[in-house]
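FORM 7B: Structural annotation worksheet

SECTION A. Query
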Amino acid sequence: MRHNKKFNHLGRKKGHRDALLMNLTISLIMHKRIFTTLAKAKALRIYAEPIITRSKTDDMANRRLVFSYLQNKEAVKELFGVIAEKVADRPGGYTRILKTGHRLGDNAEMAMIELVDFNENMLEAAGEKKAKSTRRSRRKKGAADEAPAAEAPATEEAPKAE
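SECTION B. Predicted structure
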């Protein structure tokens, strides 16, 4: 029976898995982007996103709870300082996983996991797309076409009447 087997055990015992996810989370917080296998990246997302959500409210209880998961003062300081202010208005989805192909040695699927708000290239591209796009509506187009047509004959008829 497979009761309560909702997460990937990554072929490790609980202590080893917790240490692995803790170290991956610290690396993600400090470097904002890491390369790892796809399975580890998916497990890391499940582990790291609640920790990032905790950092949005900066109080002693949340700092102690996050430190119990990370065991690294510098990572906690970075998380509650730089990262928390960037993700303050985001309701979730703090990480992005991009597949990068297969590893040469064992053909494992590799992926890049990054914090969404720290990828400057994608943020600039998203800003350009939003600046170019305009909302189109039939009403605005129809109203704009009818207004000049109605005004044009009225101006032409006025000089003829004189």
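SECTION C. Observations
Strands lie at 33-37, 95-102, 109-115. The chain has a mean pLDDT of 86.

SECTION D. Sign-off
Analyst initials: ____
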